[in-house]
Design brief:
The structure holds two protein chains of two kinds. Chain A is mainly alpha-helical. Chain A has eight helices and two strands; from the N terminus they run ββαααααααα. In chain A, strands 1-2 form a two-stranded antiparallel sheet. In chain A, helix 3 packs across helix 4 and helix 7 packs antiparallel against helix 8. The longest helix of chain A is centred in the C-terminal third of the chain and has 22 residues. The relative contact order of chain A is 0.07. Chain B is α+β, with helices and mostly antiparallel strands. Helices cover about 45% and strands about 15% of the residues of chain B. Chain B has twelve helices and ten strands. An eight-stranded antiparallel sheet of chain B has the order 2-3-4-5-1-8-10-9, with helices on one face. A two-stranded antiparallel ribbon of chain B has the order 6-7. In chain B, helix 3 crosses helix 11, helix 8 packs across helix 9 and helix 9 packs antiparallel against helix 10. Chain B is globular, with a radius of gyration of 21 Å. The chains are: A mainly alpha, B alpha+beta.
């Protein structure tokens, strides 16, 4: 569902009860923030409300939330704010990078935080460091692209070699695996 | 091309066979998997997507299961062909509407389909006609084990299989059954049933998955959580509720026959009459009427039709199927006329599907 005020995905679904009338609102993070601030400030304009702050999460101030939102994954670069807006994570490493933030969310969705089902029997997924080392390739690839864009070709070559080393260790061709 | 040959068959999930197939249309399990060395699809660049697609296609081809698979490059298909695969439940609507490099691999029987670059890098799906969740689980487990030998899957010791959306993390499993529940709809008990399903963490969707409205009294019941329970427990969670729903639907059907036979007989006969004589008809109305006729056949109120026949019509009157069968691109208005003609020909010829 799209936000009623822009094209982003609606992540806040608010039901307002006003003198016997029910009004439903579907808003993205940003518009929900200004809407809720506005409501709290007693109907001031959204700009005033923004400046005045206000609370969104339970027990979290806007400042804390803003700091959390800026936190980015060192591999894929997604910020927590972007994840909250889109509802999709950027890469497998996010589960490590944002573990502390994701855990309450996961507990809320599943009523559990520990996987108890099947586990891969074959490497590299069976080895946790296999997954972790391989997610490193995502960051290296990003750095390599940036180096090329800045014409730092020596650096780009180093990144490429580092990617190859990890891939050779964990991604054996199927027939030799 | 493969798509043309599919037009002449009806696919696994509409075969109309298997246990409890008067109510349970199909049983399905899907697993969400990702490789660790690429961003998830929504954050992947165009080049990443092409590399993920190639990596998975080549690796899967090296597994035993890969030999019997037909690959279809979804990104290069015309819209009508993508829609055709959605109608057959071989790909999701999201996969059809997405951008960039993506593909699907399908086995001969249309039981197994592997979607590459859907929301996750790989979605493994297995579907059987009728109620057979155990059989589906055993088959998909085998496929997963084979692919795991050649493809590294992103896995976390605490969170399990890692997925693009935290709602799928852990087992990455979605277990679902598609049920035909016309009597519960007619007797207005369906909402009550759904409310109690939500209470036990089961989701209810329409025929074509996520966000789709229920059409023609067909409903999908599936697990909502994927973490904290084993795959077997989640298969059981869905499996346990099915006999209860079957029982409710049977009792509602018996009630309808006992208390309002004339009414029900009239309803299904009228539905049949419209399908046999209409000059223009929408896909939605067709689905609704076929649903009523299907119930009529099962209650013995319509004698000259077979279940498999109605199932076949359910998919062959869908927009993309109709256009593939006729070999023409048609707009909505012309499709409605063509659909009505197709239905009249079908019933006039005594059930043989006209081409």
């Amino acid at each position: 569902m799209k936000c009623q005020q822009c094209d982003k995905q609606a992540v806040f679904h608010i039901t307002e009860l006003e003198t016997g009338q029910v009004r439903e609102l579907h808003l993205c993070e940003e518009h929900a923030r200004s809407y809720l601030n506005q409501a709290e400030a007693g109907g001031g304009g959204p700009d005033e409300a923004e400046a005045g702050g206000g609370t969104l999460g339970v027990g979290q101030t806007a400042d804390e939330l803003a700091a959390l939102d800026q936190k980015a994954c060192e591999m894929c670069g997604i910020t927590f704010f972007e994840f909250r807006n889109q509802g999709r994570l950027g890469c497998p490493h996010d589960y490590v990078q944002f573990a502390r933030e994701l855990e309450p969310l996961i507990a809320n969705i599943h009523g559990a935080t520990e996987h108890v089902g099947r586990r891969p029997s074959a490497p590299p997924a069976a080895a946790t460091e296999g997954t972790e080392e391989l997610t490193g390739v995502i960051g290296l690839r990003r750095q390599m692209r940036e180096s090329i864009a800045c014409e730092h070709y020596e650096q780009a070559k180093d990144h490429r070699d580092a990617i190859r080393t990890i891939e050779e260790r964990w991604l054996l061709p199927p027939h030799t695996a | 091309m493969k798509l043309e040959s599919l037009t002449n068959s009806i696919g696994e999930w509409l075969r109309g066979t298997g246990p409890e197939s008067d109510i349970v249309m199909s049983s399905r399990v899907r697993l969400a998997r990702n490789v660790p060395h690429f961003p998830f699809v929504s954050r992947a660049t165009e080049q990443d997507r092409a590399e993920i697609e190639r990596f998975l296609r080549e690796r899967i081809a090296a597994a035993p299961v890969g030999h019997g698979l037909e690959y279809i490059d979804v990104g290069r298909l015309e819209e009508v062909d993508r829609q055709f695969l959605v109608e057959r439940q071989l790909i999701s609507r999201e996969h059809a509407d997405a951008q960039g490099a993506r593909s699907v691999a399908i086995d001969q029987s249309e039981q197994v389909s592997l979607m590459i670059n859907e929301e996750d890098h790989l979605r493994i799906q297995c579907i059987h006609s009728g109620l057979d969740l155990r059989g589906v689980w055993e088959q998909i487990k085998g496929v997963d084990e084979q692919i795991e030998k050649v493809v590294p899957f992103a896995f976390h010791p605490q969170f399990g299989y890692l997925t693009a959306c935290p709602t799928n993390v852990g087992t990455g499993i979605r277990v679902s059954v598609m049920l035909h529940l016309p009597a519960l709809v007619i007797t207005r008990q369906i909402d009550k049933v759904f409310r109690s399903l939500h209470k036990i963490s089961l989701a209810v969707r329409g025929l074509y998955g996520e966000g789709s409205q229920a059409m023609g009294d067909f409903y999908q019941i599936s697990n909502q959580t994927t973490l904290g329970k084993s795959e077997e427990q989640l298969v059981e969670q869905v499996g346990d509720v099915v006999p209860v729903l079957i029982d409710y639907e049977r009792r509602a059907r018996e009630f309808l026959v006992r208390e309002t036979e004339q009414n029900v007989h009239d309803q299904v006969s009228r539905a049949y009459g419209i399908l046999k004589t209409a000059q223009t008809i929408s896909a939605e109305e067709t689905m609704q009427l076929l649903s009523r006729v299907r119930m009529g056949v099962l209650l013995g109120l319509i004698g000259d039709l077979k279940l498999a026949d109605i199932n076949s019509l359910l998919v062959r009157t869908q927009p993309a199927h109709l256009q593939k069968i006729r070999g023409l691109e048609l707009d909505t208005k012309d499709r409605n006329i063509e659909r009505a003609r197709y239905l009249r020909q079908h019933f006039e010829s005594g059930g043989a599907s006209p081409n």
